[in-house]
Design brief:
single chain; alpha/beta; seven-stranded parallel beta sheet
Length: 1891
């Protein structure tokens, strides 16, 4: 019982509830699906998983609907999020009429036990209440009701007002795109309401707290309203006019406004009033806001004045909350129905019921065809590819701070100078411009610069160009443009920096502000000038381009066709082009061309794609994928996955030239089969290596592959990998549209010249061997997890047995029971046992139960009543009987003990005797005489009985018995001397049956005397002897016996009833009472009481169906009293007992009597009943099945480990062979001199083009000229969407497969061209990462003012088609699980397979809080404090020798912060001379933002959040891109870039972000991420719906066993599907694990052989784990041995083990020195040539004894033995020649040549030890074979060692006291050689362990 209590207490300590509720709740929350709980989390803070937890939420008043959530298991040290949607009761919320506070109770239960309970309160608001600014502010939009009749009335009057102003209005919203007209509509509504003379109500409100919204339907009728009501009515009218209103609220003020164009804010609710101020300001005019107070009567102002009042109030801080009604509608927050009084009470009327203009719905069954005027999909694609909106800078160029206006008085001269491709310094405005330049505008200035023409001409000659900007402005712009160019080059492979010459000045509709579009664009490159001061610009080698977007725009909009300019020849003057354009626009009013020059960034690469789609859409329709996208339904036939497991494929069918896990393998296999599918590739899951493997396998099958990526980096990564596996020669990379044709030709020529290598030999054989080994490795685990007779596997049975191992082992089960057991029977039995256990618990237990011997199996009220009242009667009868019994005993002066049933029956007989007449004659005498008579008779019977056992007859006695006794006293043993005694002795001898001894004669003489004495007493006392004496006074023994029989029977009955029966006392009472008869009432009463008791007993026994055997030996009165009392007290549990008895009966019938018997005996209880049963069943199951299984019965872990090692080595070999096999297959398909047919003609054409270097021919034409040859030379093409459109023919089956990478960022419009050119497609990407944006195709981006949402991607569209999907699940990037934990839990539902780290108990994500950081909101938009702290951290890391080894990436949340950090970092690096450390490395530092960091990764990622408290300490909830719908995807990308560590620099904490004021998922993600960085993994709640239901494996029991040895363990370590079965905590560092124990559980069974045996272990070791395997069969067969084995390893790791065994001795071998005669010679002895034979013999002797060795060691050793100590190059050359004559085997390792005579050293299983002074002292004297062997021994001693520790131990063992840098490097090379050979694994932190 104590253990149960402690378990419950442990649960209560471990489980906690955390929750956050809405402060207020109303019908609006229910209507708009706002959950009551913002979060509800249940946490397990213990180190063990807790099973079966129920979370219940309750409210007694009816506010909540019933809610309960069952959690099958709650992982240790984890938190689970409980979703509580739709638990509010709409009925309650509709009917409530006043504000109430309701309690909400949250409970977590284990079974019926409440382990934790929490109470919260929520304020419930009436129907027409708003929760105020402190609540859910966005719900205010619910009370805008645009469908009410009064709104239409206002609009009707407003329409009349507009007519008076000369404006026609049809209420079409923003269809006309005129801001002025929208403003006039708002003014008209203002005017109409103003004319209604609405009086202001006296009611005033504080808008912070809940308040009634009033009734806006009565405003026009009563002409009275509050400011709040009037605001809502105006907003309703604006929304009725199809406009987008905004509501602004302050502490005491409220007003509204309207968007002047079709747009909305990024958030439903915003506190960024600075942005609103900007939007209402002149020049921008995005929103018109007016003061609602001005609408009331008595305020004589018009709309314009009211706008000014609004601006003044906004500026004065009257408002601080902005609610965007349109954004609320997009967020599915709709208008509330009206609550009106109806016939049957209140009813709710929605928009459909209140809209008086709504037409009635059509009658059912009547259909009418409708015409959809929506643009077709292909037209939508065209529009997106060619942006003809005024947002495109190619059509509407707006000079800003990020471009440079070039001073040019002669545009031709400027162009001509730059055409030399020389570098021109870009300088600030000239100081001698005589004031002309300062006053010039952005455009139209060139004609006024004639006075400066001479100066500018000189500047051009001196390679300088001037700008209109100051020196600092030039530097800022140039720095910005360089960054923009670099980013675009990296991300898109495109140049975006251009010098624009000439601008078309044009007008929209001939009026308004002029717009400017560049005409000629010349690609330019900006560079820093030499010396680091200033910048220069030059033309690139690419040709100038005419603005094709402008040409298309002019044709479409104005029918001006000047597209011929696009084909104009080079060499034409700019002024000529300008003249041509001017001729074409003569008829356009006010249009002109201005001769200005700008340096800016432009992008129009999409034109080629637009042209491709526009011209070829009919061809593209034939492609099934394109057709599917056009028709919005999947139309691909026979696109079904095979879904075979990896191990089911033959080794040669799907090759892995690069390592592939099972999820990658599955995608590769389906790709080979020609399937089209979406391949999900979350961060770090190996997308590029999977793509590489897919390409390689497709090429092997003879397929042609097109790989498409928008980013140059993505193509480069795959190309690099293809190069690495030897396939790069057959892959043509064409990313940029500026491809060098000669490079393409050269690459193809190189491929054509490739020759077929030697024939492959081992490929097929190795493949078969892999299949055989794979089978051997899979057999044990398949057998272990194979479902067997009871429906479980052996592994599952092991778990069940171990779980119940501690249960009582008392069940006596026969073997026949096991033999007949089946899965169905077992399930039935277990169900019955659970039921019987539950029933037993319900009735308080079985052993010593109050219901013992109650054998009822059915229960109802009649049964209950019968039992209850029969028990009451039983108690009454017992009480009655006890009363009479007490009288009876007192009367007869007797006592009784246990009153058994037998004793009761005896008592009844005794009562009958006492009441009878027979005994009266015995007691009608003197009491004393009867006493003597009775006792004499009793003695006589006893003596006679003893006497007649040895004698035939009673001997006669001649003397008085007194004489005999006197003689006996006198004579004693000499009795024969006495005559009297002698005579008696003789008589005795005659009567004796057997011979008597003298002692026996003496004994019986005394007995005879006593017999005669008693006979005398009988005759002389009372008259009773007369009844059995004859006339002579002699007693007739037969008559005596008959006479005394009733008396003796009575006393026998008394002895059977009474305790310590006193017959004399009883006789005394009888003598006195028999004659008088006063005992009769007692006897009669007792008789009746007994009869009543018997009747009650029988009724009671019948009522409970009791077995009489139950009270056979029991005290009846106590038994039935206790039983009846217990039944009365526990009558409520009778139903449970009946159920228990019923099931027990069924168990008995089923043959499970051993269960019921054990329960009844108390051997088992209801708590351990099922456990005990399972223990026995599964122990027998294991004994039977393991022994009977051919695989498991012969299982050997050592054999399996050996096969695993063979498989690992063979897999590496086979990967290498696969690369060679694919390359050989590709070379074999190349045309040769014997090739005939069309291919031979294409070869000739290729040779011809090669000679001409493609002069006058495009690549597109070239490719079309050699289609078959191109297939052979470049079966794989790596391209961007642009180059696909530019260089490939629009043929539908040009490729067998197209693969898109980073498809989440690729718009569908850009992907169509590539998609249409292939038979099948694989869309690789992650829908949870960055969507397509216009970031790289646009200029400056202001993240705070983003208007457009993210675009659709090809990935999204394919998923919408329900295209088949595959998922990459193994995450490789993060070397610490905490680095990916946030993304995995928040966005991937813990589906990523991540690998724990040894330091998993710590987090590698931390928050660096910058307390003095201030966000400069509304101005620079930077956070200088954060930036400075981050830059200081970078410098600190770069200065630290150890930290500087890790690469660094910096991610900012805004471009402004990115720019500032780049500048500060650049200055700091220069100041600290760390530029080389930062950039001259494999992975240089980068500084990027959310938009362009996707695809990058670094060891350490430093974040700058930037956003935070402003100067006033206020935090705005505008976080730029994060506020967008796809903001969370940006966050997901950013937080998944790190390999080793993340540091988040922020000037705010998560607690400072109030989610009640925003519904942005991105902002919510940021808050959660900051909390995670600050507090760790436990803040991340697992989604209860996604919680994996996998139960704990065998690791739980291993951990328990190891705990007994003092080792603290965790089991099931990991946050993903992959878990380490058991991890042992380092005793010396409780924050780290020291050992991972991997078992063969369910995760291993689901894994392929390669995953299980190679990859998982290698990844763990690479991540610093020590790993050991434990096999379940070994553990169950001999747990002590297995635990001892692991303990030994732990003892070695921790240093606990006293080194009883040195594993080095296994490898150590004494050095065998060659027997050489020491000589003393000079160098001439060697060079003369006369002693070659002797030297060679000496060399061979050394080789025989001292192999292996390096070439240098052999030479030095031989020369030393010859005494040649000084020698030069000639001696070395001669010695090397002589060494070659020895014919020794040689091998080059670690850059040196090593020699050996035999191959015995190749296994690296020995090293040589020199006992004395060593002759080997330098790195040249040792061989890698021996060093590797030595390292193996050291690792066996210590399991794993850090590299520096290992090097020190190696040097000590080799007696190298002071190792040089070269020696240390040599050992490092040996370690790497061991890694390459697959002997060792080197972790990321330089820890070495066995592979």
């Amino acid at each position: 019982m104590a253990s149960k209590k402690s378990a419950k207490n442990t649960l209560k300590e471990a489980v906690t509830l955390s929750y956050k509720l809405q402060r207020f709740v109303s019908y609006a929350d229910f209507f708009n699906r706002v959950p009551l709980f913002i979060s509800l989390q249940v946490s397990n803070q213990s180190t063990e998983t807790i099973d079966d937890i129920d979370v219940v939420i309750e409210n007694a008043a009816g506010l909540l609907l019933p809610f309960s959530k069952h959690l099958e298991h709650l992982p240790f040290e984890s938190t689970v999020e409980i979703a509580t949607a739709e638990i509010l009761s709409p009925l309650y919320l509709t009917e409530i009429s006043e504000i109430t506070v309701q309690p909400v109770t949250i409970k977590a239960l284990s079974g019926a036990t409440v382990i934790v309970e929490a109470r919260a309160e929520v304020t419930v608001l009436p129907f027409d209440y708003w929760s105020g600014r402190s609540g859910n502010a966005e719900l205010l939009s619910c009370f805008s009701r645009p469908k009410i009749a009064d709104c239409l009335r206002v609009l009707s009057e407003a329409q009349e007002q507009l007519k008076k102003w000369g404006i026609a209005c049809e209420w079409r919203g923003y269809a006309e795109g005129d801001k002025n007209k929208i403003r006039q509509i708002a003014a008209a509504i203002f005017s109409v309401l103003k004319k209604n003379s609405i009086e202001k109500s006296a009611a005033e409100f504080q808008y912070e707290d809940p308040m009634p919204v009033g009734d806006i339907t009565k405003i026009l009728k009563t002409r009275v309203g509050t400011s709040f009501e009037l605001t809502l009515f105006i907003v309703s009218c604006l929304e009725c006019a199809n406009l987008h209103p905004v509501i602004v609220v302050g502490e005491k003020s409220v007003s509204c406004g309207v968007w002047l164009y079709d747009n909305c804010f990024l958030d439903s609710v915003s506190d960024d009033t600075v942005l609103l101020q900007k939007y209402i300001s002149g020049g921008i005019n995005n929103i018109s806001g007016f003061d609602v107070e001005d609408v009331f009567s008595g305020r004589n102002v018009n709309f314009t004045a009211s706008e000014k009042h609004f601006a003044q109030k906004l500026d004065g801080g009257y408002f601080d909350t902005v609610i965007d009604v349109k954004r609320c509608r997009l967020a599915r927050i709709y208008s509330l129905p009206l609550k009106v009084k109806g016939i049957k009470g209140y009813e709710l009327l929605g928009d459909d019921e209140t809209n008086i203009e709504a037409a009635p719905q059509n009658l059912s069954g009547i259909k009418k065809l409708s015409v959809d005027g929506k643009a077709t999909k292909n037209k939508q694609w065209e529009r997106r590819l060619l942006d003809l909106s005024l947002k495109n800078s190619l059509l509407n160029f707006k000079p800003d701070k990020n471009c440079l206006h070039i001073v040019s008085s002669d545009i031709n001269a400027t162009f001509g100078g730059l055409s030399s491709h020389s570098e021109y310094a870009v300088l600030e405005k000239p100081t001698d411009g005589r004031g002309m330049i300062d006053d010039l505008s952005f455009f139209g200035s060139a004609s006024r610069l004639s006075a400066l023409s001479a100066l500018l001409e000189v500047e051009l000659k001196n390679k300088r160009i001037r700008t209109y900007s100051s020196k600092d402005e030039v530097n800022d712009v140039m720095r910005y443009l360089i960054k923009k160019a670099k980013t675009a080059e990296e991300e898109a492979g495109a140049n975006v920096i251009y010098l624009a010459f000439g601008f078309l000045k044009w007008y929209e509709n001939g009026v308004g502000e002029p717009k400017y579009a560049p005409l000629i664009l010349c690609p330019a490159k900006i560079e820093k000038s030499k010396g680091g001061k200033g910048y220069s610009v030059r033309f690139t080698d690419d040709e100038m381009q005419v603005n094709t977007t402008l040409l298309e725009f002019l044709l479409r909009e104005y029918k001006i066709d000047i597209r011929g300019l696009d084909n104009i020849a080079s060499g034409i003057q700019i002024s000529e082009i300008i003249a041509m354009v001017k001729m074409e626009i003569l008829n356009m009013k006010n249009w002109d061309v201005v001769e200005e020059v700008y340096l800016a960034n432009f992008s129009f690469a999409r034109y080629a794609m637009w042209n491709d789609v526009r011209k070829n859409i009919d061809k593209f329709r034939k492609n099934p994928m394109v057709k599917s996208l056009l028709n919005n339904r999947l139309e691909i036939t026979n696109n079904v996955f095979e879904d075979k497991a990896e191990d089911e494929y033959p080794a040669a069918e799907v090759l892995s030239p690069m390592v592939a896990d099972s999820s990658q393998f599955s995608a590769i296999a389906e790709a080979i089969n020609g399937a089209s599918f979406v391949l999900h590739g979350p961060p770090g899951t190996g997308k590029s290596q999977t793509i590489t493997n897919i390409i390689a396998n497709c090429l092997n099958k003879g397929k042609r592959v097109l790989f498409v990526a928008e980013k140059q980096a993505a193509l480069s990564v795959v190309k690099k990998r293809l190069d690495g596996i030897g396939l790069g020669d057959f892959c043509l990379e064409l990313h940029s549209n500026k491809v060098d044709k000669s490079v393409v030709l050269h690459n193809l020529e190189t491929t054509l010249d490739l020759k077929c290598e030697e024939e492959e030999g081992e490929f097929a054989a190795k493949g078969e061997l892999i299949e055989a080994l794979r089978k051997d490795l899979n057999e044990p685990i398949s057998a272990l997890h194979k479902k067997r007779r009871l429906g479980v596997s052996v592994y599952e049975a092991i778990l069940i047995y171990l779980k119940n191992k501690g249960a009582p082992d008392v069940l006596d089960i026969e073997s026949t029971f096991y033999d007949s057991l089946t899965k169905e029977k077992l399930e039935t039995y277990e169900k019955m046992l659970m039921e019987v256990a539950a029933a037993a618990k319900q009735c308080g237990g079985v052993y010593r139960s109050p219901f013992e011997n109650v054998n009822l199996t059915e229960f109802d009220s009649d049964v209950r009543n019968t039992v209850y009242y029969s028990a009451e009667v039983m108690i009454a009868e017992i009480r009655h009987l006890k009363n009479y019994l007490s009288l009876f005993l007192d009367f007869y002066r007797q006592r009784v003990s246990a009153f058994t049933d037998k004793k009761l029956q005896t008592l009844v007989q005794l009562i009958e005797v006492l009441r009878g007449e027979e005994i009266k004659e015995y007691f009608d005498c003197d009491e004393n005489e009867f006493y003597v008579f009775f006792n004499a008779n009793r003695r006589l019977d006893r003596l006679l009985g003893n006497y007649f056992k040895n004698f035939k007859a009673l001997i006669p006695v001649d003397v008085n018995e007194a004489v005999i006794e006197q003689e006996l006293d006198n004579w004693g043993d000499n009795y024969k001397s006495s005559k009297v005694l002698g005579t008696l002795a003789k008589r005795l001898r005659k009567a004796a049956i057997v011979k008597l001894s003298p002692q026996e004669e003496l004994k019986y003489i005394g007995i005879v005397a006593q017999i005669y004495s008693d006979l005398n007493l009988i005759k002389t006392n009372t008259r009773l002897s007369a009844n059995f004496t004859d006339r002579g006074g002699k007693i007739n023994f037969k008559r005596r016996e008959d006479f005394l029989e009733p008396l003796m029977q009575m006393h026998a009955l008394c002895e059977g009833v009474f305790m310590d029966y006193n017959a004399d006392s009883f006789n005394s009472v009888l003598v006195k009472s028999v004659g008088s008869g006063y005992a009769v009432p007692i006897l009669d009463g007792l008789k009746q009481a007994i009869a009543g008791f018997e009747a009650g007993k029988n009724n009671f026994a019948a009522a409970v169906n009791a077995d009489p055997e139950g009270w056979y030996d029991e005290d009846l009165l106590d038994y039935f009293n206790d039983k009846a009392s217990a039944l009365i007290d526990n009558i409520d549990m009778l139903a449970g007992w009946c159920m228990f008895k019923r099931i027990s009966h069924e168990l008995d019938e089923a043959g499970l009597t051993f269960i019921t018997d054990s329960l009844a005996s108390g051997a088992i209880s209801s708590d351990n009943l099922l456990d005990s049963f399972r223990k026995n069943v599964y122990r027998n199951f294991l004994e039977t099945n393991i022994g009977a299984d051919a695989v498991l019965s012969k299982f050997s872990s050592s054999v399996l480990e050996e096969k695993i090692e063979q498989f690992r080595a063979l897999d590496e070999q086979y990967s290498e062979l696969a690369r060679e096999h694919i390359r050989r297959a590709l070379i074999s398909r190349l045309p040769s001199t014997s090739t005939e047919g069309a291919l031979s003609l294409e070869v000739l054409a290729f040779q011809r083009h090669l000679k001409s270097n493609l002069r006058g021919m495009t690549l597109k034409g070239f490719f079309a000229d050699i289609p078959e040859l191109l297939t052979a030379l470049a079966p794989c093409m790596l391209m961007s969407p642009v180059t696909v459109a530019q260089y490939l023919e629009p043929e539908p089956d040009l490729f067998d497969l197209v693969i898109f990478d980073e498809a989440s960022q690729l718009p569908t419009s850009e992907a169509i061209g590539a998609l249409a050119r292939a038979k099948s497609a694989i869309i690789v990407g992650d829908p949870k990462q960055l969507p397509p944006t216009s970031f790289f195709s646009s200029g400056y981006v202001d993240e705070e003012n983003l208007d457009n949402e993210d675009l659709e991607s090809i990935l999204d569209d394919c998923l919408a088609l329900s295209m088949p999907e595959k998922h990459l699940t193994w995450h490789y990037r993060s070397k610490h699980e905490s680095l990916i934990a946030f993304s995995n839990i928040m966005y991937y539902g813990s589906k990523l397979c991540t690998f724990p780290s040894p330091d998993a108990l710590e987090s590698k994500v931390r928050l660096a809080l910058v307390e003095d950081g201030v966000y400069d909101r509304g101005f620079t938009k930077r956070n200088k404090g954060e930036a400075d702290a981050l830059v200081n951290e970078v410098i600190r890391r770069l200065k630290d020798p150890k930290l500087s080894q890790s690469s660094i990436g910096i991610v900012t949340f805004s471009t402004a912060q990115q720019d500032y950090i780049e500048r500060r970092l650049s200055d700091a690096l220069i100041k600290n001379r760390l530029e080389d450390a930062a950039f001259e490395r494999e992975e240089p530092i980068f500084v990027k933002n959310l938009e362009n960091v996707q695809g990058d990764e670094r060891d350490v990622i430093l974040f700058s959040v930037c956003y935070g408290p402003d100067r006033t300490g206020r935090i705005s909830l505008n976080f730029g891109p994060l506020n967008q719908v796809g903001g969370w995807r940006r966050l997901n990308v950013a937080v998944s870039r790190a390999r080793e560590e993340m540091v988040v620099f922020a000037s705010m904490t998560s607690a400072m972000i109030d989610l009640s004021k925003t519904n942005s998922k991105g902002v919510a993600g940021l808050k959660a991420f900051l909390e995670f960085a600050q507090k760790g993994k436990t803040t991340l709640a697992l989604n209860a719906e996604e919680l994996q239901s996998a139960k704990s494996g065998i690791g739980k029991y291993i951990a328990r066993e190891l705990k007994t040895y003092g080792y603290e363990c965790r089991y099931d370590v990991g946050i993903s599907e992959f878990k380490i079965d058991c991890a042992v905590v380092d005793p010396k560092n409780k924050k780290r694990f020291i050992l991972a124990i991997l078992c063969d559980g369910s995760t291993a069974f689901r894994s392929s052989a390669k995953d299980r045996c190679i990859l998982q272990t290698q990844i763990l070791k690479h991540n610093n784990w020590n790993v050991v395997r434990l096999f379940s069969i070994n553990f169950i067969n001999n747990p002590k041995r297995e635990i001892k084995r692991i303990k030994d390893i732990l003892d070695r790791l921790t240093g606990v083990e006293k080194q009883t065994r040195d594993y080095l001795t296994k490898y150590k071998k004494a050095y065998r020195y060659a027997k050489l005669e020491q000589q003393n010679n000079l160098a001439q002895f060697v060079t003369s040539g006369e002693n070659d034979a002797e030297i060679v013999a000496r060399l061979k002797a050394i080789a025989s004894a001292e192999e292996p060795f390096s070439e240098q060691f052999l030479m030095k050793r031989c020369l030393n033995s010859l005494g040649v100590l000084k020698y030069g190059a000639k001696v070395e050359e001669r010695m090397l020649n002589l060494i070659n004559l020895c014919e020794l085997k040689r091998e080059t390792l670690c850059g040196k040549t090593y020699l050996r005579k035999t191959d015995k050293c190749l296994d690296c299983d020995f090293y040589r030890y020199e006992a004395g002074e060593p002759i080997r002292k330098t790195e040249q004297d040792f061989t890698p074979y021996e060093v590797i062997a030595l390292i193996k021994g050291l690792l066996e001693n210590k399991v794993s060692l850090y590299c520096d520790e290992l090097i020190a131990l190696v040097c000590t063992e080799l007696k190298v006291a002071r190792p040089s840098d070269r020696f240390t490097e040599f050992i490092n090379q040996c370690i790497m050689l061991g890694v390459q050979k697959g002997i060792f694994i080197r972790s990321i932190s330089d820890r070495i362990s066995f592979c």
